[in-house]
Amino acid sequence: MNSAMTLQQLVHGSPSERATAAEYLAHQGTDAAYAASQLTAACSDTESVSDWAIAALEQLGPPPSSAIDLLASLAQSEKTLTAYWAVTLLGRAGPDAAFHQQVLVTLLLNSKDLAVQEKAAWSLGRMHADSSEATRALQQAAQSPETRLSRVAAKALQQT
Amino acid sequence: MARRKSKFSLLMWLLFSGITGSGITGYLKPNIPIIGPMIANFTDKSQGLVTGSQNLLTESASGLLNNQASGSYGGSAVAGRLTSARQPSRGQQQGAVQPTTAAGSHGNGNLLIASFNIQVLGQSKISKPGMKELLAHVIRQFDLVAIQEVRAKADNVIPDLVTTVNSNGSRYNFVIGPRLGRSNSKEQYTYVFNTNTVEHDPSSVGTVNDPKDLLHREPFVTRFRARTQSPAQAFTFWMVNIHTDPDEVPEEVDALADVFEVMQKARADEDDVILLGDLNASEKQLGRLGRLPGMQWTVSGVTTNTRKNKAYDNILFQGQATREYTGRWGVYDLERNLGLSREQALQVSDHLPVWAEFRVWEAPPPTSSVGRPSLYN
């Protein structure tokens, strides 16, 4: 299965084809990075697709720079798993994704999902976010009663 | 820094002992049960299915399995194991014993303990033609397998798999932990074990409490004992099953150092702690866990993933305490042992099982071994 065919199946295939494509990508390790944004969107698919999409995302490492804009858009998805993984990949991209730090600031402040907030704080640290908004949001999160959120935010402040 | 670590260890110990219901004295009085809160919840939901002190999670496999026999550890239980398990040819680190080229125990009276991340072990995987049989065959190579990445909303996946394991007359059983994970995507740990050769302590099953949320998927711990004709002398040990978050490996392996120390103190009568799983780290990336005094890891200098370009999985213990380790370990090569192509092996998992061998008799304390002829040199 070549890359174009895999992406075609993952995005436009039948449920069975989408699951097969996601599983195939989960076997590719970092070689699946080219499909980072499509896999992130697939996290909101049916369970048989999303389980494999998540497995692929766990191991694919940083996304290619060409995927960053789309990931920033997906980070604003109302579908929690898609947002969670988009934020995670933006963090893995590091400073290359710093242009989108405001998206993460908004999620850190406003997301209703604690796991997304925590990942947003983590990602801001990874990308060495340097805006005043990012610093303020992280300072606020560092005071959160949520133990992990406050710890991750405090660590991110040391990285910014 | 050392003082901070010490305080943290104490905190984790207190929380583990307190919240699991055993109380601190539970570790000093082995008869007081240690039940993790999430396991207890699972059990509570299924009241009526449990009889006596039997563990529900074990009981859930009854009907599929014979009751655990109280007989002795028998060499015949390992008959039928593959002879072609390969081990790496290089790699020694901090006292790790040079791997040999032999395979499974084959009735030599030792325990083979494995860790296997079976990627996305769920309904879709076990529904593939031949997959259950293949996984069952791999599991039967070992006496006790710590499995990571059970991902299923239904509860039938592991019971179905164990039924297949036992379809050849084997007598395996399992214990399974709660669904864990920060996002909506959850995973479970499980132990699948040969009841002819090893038994678990139903009162010592639980999930490590992690009040600071340092670990994405808190370790699932269970205490086991080798089945022998003399249970009082049999090798007993904690198993600590872990799958770290690949994005937070340095933080998590450091936290695992505290977990390890907590488990070492969990019971006054238990010095053996075997921490194993998918660490997403090679032996060179074990952080504070690898720097604990006397810490020994079995897998070294080899890759453990199916694509054979990463070392993720390992089996660790404190060398002086766990002298039951024979020095034999390996990575079970799915392609070589099962005649699979790389693509077929990847359908099984992106990880290979890693294993180590242990004697079934408890090693005497190091101080009392002086001058005694012993298996444990």
Short description:
The complex is a heterodimer of chains A (160) and B (377). Chain A is mainly α and 160 residues long. Chain A has helices at 3-12, 15-26, 36-42, 47-59, 68-74, 80-93, 101-110, 114-126, 132-142, 147-159.
Q: What order do the helices and strands of chain B follow?
A: HHEHHEHHEHEEEEEHEHEEEHHE
Q: Which CATH architecture of chain B would you pick?
A: 4-Layer Sandwich
pLDDT < 50 stretches of chain B: 1-6, 13-106, 369-373
The helical percent of chain B reads: 10-25%
Q: Please state the overall shape of chain B, judged from the principal axes of the Cα atoms.
A: globular
Question: What do the pLDDT scores of chain B average to?
Answer: 76
N-to-C terminal Cα separation of chain A, in Å? 42 Å
User: Helix fraction of chain A?
Assistant: 55-70%
Distance N to C terminus of chain B: 35 Å
Number of domain units of chain B? 1
CATH architecture of the largest domain in chain A: Alpha Horseshoe
The helix/strand class of chain B is alpha+beta
Shape of chain A: elongated
Q: CATH H level of the largest domain in chain A: which superfamily? A: Leucine-rich Repeat Variant
Number of helices of chain B: 11
- Please state the average pLDDT score of chain A: 96
Which strand order spans the largest sheet of chain B, edge to edge or round the barrel? 1-6-7-8-9-11-10
Order of helices and strands of chain A: HHHHHHHHHH
